[in-house]
C-alpha cells in the first residue's frame, strides 16, 4: 500500500489519510470497521481506549495494527498478578563504573502502549498508569520525565466474571475516554479469517500509511472542529438527563461532558468534516458514557443500543 502522509486543510479531504488507515486495519481485523473507527476517534481526541472482551477476538491485533499503520512506536505490557509498578514505569540502577544511579525507562516510554489484560494486575500496579495517562509524564524519585507524543494507551480487559481479575476503580475507568468491545466476527468475516493467511504474517507485512507528525497535526485539528452553541446545549442536555434519570446511580461529570464533545469532534474529523453534528455526538455517546454510568436497570452497560434508547428522549435543540 502506498504511503499517504500528507494532511489536507480542514474540510478538504481531512479523512483521506485516516481512511487509508481504516482500510489497512480492516484487511487484518475483518468485519470490524466500527471498532477500528472508534479506536481512531479516541486517538485523535487525545484520550485512551479500554477494550473489554473475551480472549481471542482481536484486541491485541487492533492495537498492533493501529500503531504500525500510524508509524508509531509500540510496546506491549502483559499485566499479571505479580507485575510491579517498576516493571511498567522503570527503575534506577546503581552503576559501579560511574558511581551513580542510572534510570532505565520502563515500557511505558513509547507512543502506543498495549496494557494487555490490565485487570489481572493488582490495584497498586494498575494505579501506575494513572499519572502517565492523565499527565503524559512519569514522576519517579522526585524527577518528572515526559512521555513521547502522541501517547496513546489501549488497555484490554477480560470480563469481570473471569477468574483472577481485579475490577478497575471508577477513578481509573474515568481516565479512559472510550470503552468498546470487538465481539465475534460475522459469518462471512470469520470464514474469510479461517480460509485466509495467518494474521501474524499479515501483520508482518504491514507498512505505515501515515507519519507521527501527521497524526499530531490531525490531533491538533480536533479542538478546532466547529461546535455550534446549539450543539453544546445538546451535550449539556445529555449531561443533565444522566443526572436526573432514575436509570443511573449517578450522572456524568463535567469532565465526561468535555470527553463527549471532544470525541464527537474527532468523529466528525474522521468523517471528513470541520464541524460537529448531533449525529456525531450520538455515535460516540454509548462508548464515552457506558463505563462511566452505572445503570439501575437490568440492561448491560456494554450494549450501545441500550444506551441510545436511554438517551433518545433528550431533544436535539
Word description of this protein:
The protein has 317 residues and is α/β, with parallel strands linked by helices. It folds into 2 domains: 202 residues, Rossmann fold (3-Layer(aba) Sandwich); 87 residues, Magnesium chelatase subunit I, C-Terminal domain (Helicase, Ruva Protein, domain 3, Orthogonal Bundle), CATH 1.10.8.80. It is 43% helix and 14% strand. The protein has 14 helices and 9 strands. The chain has a 5-stranded parallel sheet with strand order 2-5-8-1-9. It has a two-stranded antiparallel ribbon with strand order 3-4. A hairpin with a 2-residue loop joins strand 6 and strand 7. Helix 1 runs antiparallel to helix 3 and helix 11 packs across helix 12. The termini are far apart. The N terminus is likely disordered.
Q: In terms of topology, how is this protein built?
A:
Elements (H helix, E strand, L loop, with lengths): L15 H13 L4 H12 L4 E4 L6 H11 L4 E5 L6 H5 E6 L4 E6 L6 E5 L6 H4 L1 H8 L1 E4 L2 E4 L5 E6 L12 H4 L4 E3 L6 H9 L3 H6 L7 H10 L7 H16 L9 H17 L7 H12 L14 H8 L6
Amino acid at each position: 500500500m502506498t504511503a499517504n502522509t500528507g494532511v489536507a486543510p480542514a474540510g478538504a479531504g481531512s479523512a483521506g489519510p485516516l481512511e487509508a488507515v481504516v482500510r489497512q486495519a480492516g484487511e487484518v481485523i475483518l468485519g470490524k470497521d466500527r471498532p477500528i473507527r472508534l479506536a481512531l476517534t479516541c486517538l485523535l481526541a487525545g484520550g485512551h481506549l479500554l477494550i473489554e472482551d473475551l480472549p481471542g477476538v482481536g484486541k491485541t491485533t487492533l492495537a498492533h495494527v493501529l500503531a504500525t499503520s500510524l508509524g508509531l512506536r509500540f510496546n506491549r505490557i502483559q499485566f499479571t498478578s505479580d507485575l510491579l509498578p517498576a516493571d511498567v514505569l522503570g527503575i534506577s540502577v546503581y552503576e559501579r563504573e560511574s558511581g551513580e544511579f542510572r534510570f532505565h525507562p520502563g515500557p511505558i516510554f513509547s507512543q502506543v502502549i498495549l496494557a494487555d489484560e490490565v485487570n489481572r494486575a493488582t490495584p497498586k500496579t494498575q494505579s501506575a498508569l494513572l499519572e502517565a495517562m492523565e499527565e503524559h509524564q512519569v514522576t519517579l524519585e522526585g524527577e518528572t520525565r515526559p512521555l513521547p507524543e502522541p501517547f496513546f494507551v489501549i488497555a484490554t480487559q477480560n470480563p469481570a466474571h473471569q477468574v483472577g481479575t481485579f475490577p478497575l476503580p471508577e477513578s481509573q475507568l474515568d481516565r479512559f475516554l472510550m470503552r468498546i468491545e470487538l465481539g465475534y466476527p460475522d459469518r462471512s468475516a470469520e470464514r474469510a479469517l479461517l480460509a485466509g493467511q495467518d494474521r501474524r504474517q499479515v501483520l508482518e507485512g504491514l507498512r505505515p500509511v501515515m507519519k507521527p507528525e501527521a497524526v499530531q497535526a490531525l490531533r491538533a485539528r480536533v479542538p478546532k472542529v466547529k461546535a455550534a452553541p446549539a450543539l453544546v446545549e445538546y451535550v449539556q442536555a445529555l449531561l443533565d438527563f444522566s443526572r436526573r434519570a432514575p436509570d443511573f446511580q449517578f450522572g456524568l461529570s463535567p469532565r465526561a461532558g468535555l470527553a463527549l464533545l471532544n470525541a464527537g469532534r474527532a468523529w466528525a474529523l474522521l468523517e471528513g468534516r470541520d464541524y460537529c453534528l448531533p449525529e456525531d455526538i450520538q455515535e460516540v455517546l454509548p462508548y464515552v458514557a457506558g463505563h462511566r454510568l452505572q445503570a439501575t436497570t437490568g440492561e448491560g452497560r456494554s450494549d450501545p443500543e441500550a444506551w441510545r434508547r436511554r438517551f433518545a428522549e433528550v431533544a436535539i435543540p
